[in-house]
Amino acid sequence: MAFAILFFSCQTDNDTNPKEKFAFKTPSNFPKPTYNLQENPITLEGFELGKKLFYTGILSRDGTVSCGSCHAQTSGFTQHGHDLSHGIDDKLTMRNSLPIQNLAWAKNFFWDGGVFHLDLFAISPIEAENEMGETLPNVLQKLRNTEGFESPKTDYPLLFEKAFGTKEITTDRFLKALSQFQLMCISANSRYDKHVRNENTNENKLTTQELKGLELFEQNCSNCHSTTLFTDQSYRNNGLKIGNPNDTGRHRITQNEEDKFKFKVPSLRNVEVTRPYMHDGRFRNLEAVLDHYTDGIQDSETLDESLKSTLKIELNQEEKEAIIAFLKTLTDEEFLSNPILSEF
Amino acid sequence: MNTKFNFSKIAFLAFFIAFSTALSSCKKDSETEPEIDPNKKGMLEIKFDNIVGQDDFTLGKDYQNAAGETFKVDLLQYYISNIILKSENGSEYIVPQEESYFLIKEHDENSRNIQIPNVPEGNYNELIFTIGVDSLRNTMPPAQRTGVLDVGVEGAGKEMYWSWNSGYIFFKMEGTSTAIEPTDTNPNGKFRYHIGGFGGYDTPMFNNIRTISISLGRDAAKTREEAMPSVHIVVDILKVLEGTTQISLSEYPTVMVNPFSLKVSENYMKAFEYHHVHNEGHE
User: Fold this and answer.
1) What is this model's ipTM?
2) In this complex, which of A40, A135, A174 lies closest to B158 when CB atoms are compared?
3) Which domains does chain A have, with CATH numbers?
4) pLDDT at A114 over 60
5) Quick one: which of A136, A244, A247, A265 has the fewest CB in 10 Å?
6) Can you tell me the mean pLDDT for A234-261?
7) B32 pLDDT more than 90
């Protein structure tokens, strides 16, 4: 109840129908979502439940880890400052957590694309022994056991009833609620978006340097980080020196030799706040990332074709600075501070 | 439709069956077999008996494989799905897909007896089924993964699903072998065979979906409204390690997401054999 009030109080205008305002809307410069929203229509109640589940430690074995632990909103829903994300019992994972944003348009999930449906995504972190160390049946049981709990504790069966009609807590409902929250994490109001949509005001007009950066980006980067989503959602080997030899990326999933050390091309939206970079968080800042592309590419059998001939992207210092200036226009302050997505 | 033809065909069939039944020593009485009315429905039971060679299979008991390794199994379970029953006259009954997923668990006797309802009366002499879960179901959202496929239920999909590389485990066998050299990471000489892989969602990958056909030879499972036949299939666990390719447990203690798993599934296809049918309805 307190949550609902909090939510309504966040509505800034005189909207008389918050449910309608709440509905999932595809931004005008975005393509059609990949996620089938008809199979899981987003409601205020479903979203609120999903948000509770996203931020509760109940999902982990000892209550210490929530989804939000590795996916903090202010860092673009990543784990700030960690190269490898860490989970329960201070165990390190193999990779740097990816942002939760614009997942309605994602075809596959994780750096290796091992999961292909958003509803199936959460099972993996819940059950990984170095993330939440729990089992899905246990989580569902713990949630069922909260029936009758009074505030400030949460009565989850009651929230499931509000969202889905009855108190029953099933695999399907649990995962759908989590998806509803994640689907609403839409980042589409960066200065770049406003530039594309011709919503330029003086305040968010792109500078000469940023526009130069955009041009350079389109020439040199958008082959893989293709615009709107800033990823073509493919798996590529971008010439990183082999780090953890056991992490063969996409190959772990497909077992195809030609997929060795290929990782998903990440979106660059909010890239300014999602450092460190790469699947293992090896680069601390954007300068280091660009230095890799100009001077650090290692040749290998699976190195991406686009890098094969020259083993480098030609950029001088001024151009790098322009690209970084442009990348910062992808920071979406409204998204990063949107109160309806925040834990508190 | 041509009812006259059907009637004469059925009458002939009934006569033929009655005649052949009279010759069969299995029959306890000489009662005439009831006619088949395809509009009537009955049930059909399939029993999966895990065996080793000629003996009943027992969890925790020592066995020896063709490589001469002594091993015991702690856990054995597998999915059977997409069942089709073929009758003597060539007609097929395709079990509705939603109701056609079963998880056979050695440690749970009830799970080893599959009872299929709403089967049109007929004399079924061939069974076709998948060992595993079809690729389409592997790609569906959780709403379409209920019953034994529910990944949030202990004893169902929970133990038979890879969450990080989304897909069902079709066949799971775990145990220990004295032939497996203990190591720091495997101090008890465990072997773990988790066989899955449905061919990949949008990138082709290995596919362990195995569909087999089992003939009842001259026998038939005679489903009638009032009589449920029971088909016994034996599954020789030794064949998992030697059906086509001889596999050494010490050489391959762990087989999971790995193309080598193709050898294992090719092997266990050979483990399933028809044994006998009870037509009295109940044992």
Assistant:
1) 0.87
2) A135
3) 2-187+335-341 (1.10.760.10), 191-333 (1.10.760.10)
4) yes
5) A244
6) 95
7) no
